[in-house]
Design goal:
466 residues; alpha/beta; Rossmann fold; N-(1-d-carboxylethyl)-l-norvaline Dehydrogenase, domain 2; Single alpha-helices involved in coiled-coils or other helix-helix interfaces; 3 domains; 8-stranded mixed β-sheet
Length: 466
Amino acid sequence: MNDEIGLIGLGPMGRGLAAAMQSHGIHVRAWEPSPEIRNSPEVTALGIANANGAEDLARGLKPNRIILLMVRSGTPVDDCLAALTPHLSPHDVVIDAGNSHPQDTERRQALLHESGLALMGLGVSGGPSGARRGPALMAGGPLDAWNRTGPVLKRIAARFNGEPCVDRFGAGAAGHYVKMVHNGIEYAVMQALADLHALLTQGCGLAANQVGEIFARMEQSPAAGFLTQIAAEAAAYPDPEGTGFLVDAVDDRAAQNGTGAWSVTAASEAGVAVPSIAAAVDFRTFSANALFRRRAITKAASAGGASLAVGDVGSLAASAMSAVSAASFQQGLALLSHTGDRFGAPLPLCRIVRVWRAGSILQGRMTEELAQALQDESTPPDNPRTRYLDAVAAEGLDALRQLTVFGISAGIPVPGLSTSLAYLDGFGDRPLSTRFVQMLRDRFGEHGFRRLDGTLGHVPSLGNAS
């Protein structure tokens, strides 16, 4: 077992991982390209050996090196690999622990393989504090590289009932693909929480402490987890630079790191619907264009349909949030199940959700119960519907509908709620409106459409009504 590791990148995540490794008896030798970060008090406090560059880092490690990169995705990863790989030897393993695009990971794996080197793609969930305490780790890459790196990663991973929350999910970029979908689910859940915050504050006029209490009550529901906990804290967090609450001082132009949009693109290419994730991505994009959206379309929305009492909105929030969470996880599972043999075999859904049970941003009651459901129900890979998620969604569907109507009637955009509602309403035997779309596209494009009897139909064949 390796008792030393090289680390490139000592930003917040890198420092968290370095501290975790040290606390588990793993010697860390690091290189931070940025002088500003390298000489910061936070890095000095770690007390780890700092290399002067990529060559110095490689020379300071024993043969059969393991070097972990924790740098921004994209060009910074390529730059680090270009500086590092000339100084490595065959059988060394590099772990990219950033949020890299799966296609970039596969390209880099092929490039390093030519030099006898292995690249593991590692999704890390938990944020800087989670990295220090124990993150959830999602690995992908060559099996022999996993056999070498797995024991090290298991030492620093979070644990759920004593089981380390780390696993290899397949060859290639399986780890980064799973982390991408994880983040997509995260986007959808956070947008729904933000929608509920808007309803409770703008729609009901509740005070910050009251909103925090409503979010805190979600701990008794299937939606309970890390995200609902921090939502309760954030809703009532005082502004350290003012007299009010911090949320009222935050610029609403939301940022995103790309993983949500990548999930939507991957879903579109795979023919999988992920509307809750897409709505969350779109609304962040919309929020960022402040100049475009500042002028209101109408002066005020009609409140004619907003018939819910303030107390009703609060009592419905947990059930509605549970339904949205179920819809979001269902969409994520559907996307994960459509990778085929891209990573050597279908992605193991149960094992993936088991890793998310601790250390992950998605940790909570739903991941715990969903992991058990996937195990008990023997869900087929090509149809990852579970009775558990269906039941949670059904239980909260009416609450979700009432709050969506309330938001629409009050003129408050609630894309996370409304899109999830439409998604859940689409299940069942009732024909979807898309049958009319089929007629329209055939009418102008002569694409044809399938009739219910299995034959091919065309709109012109219906004749001219008189």
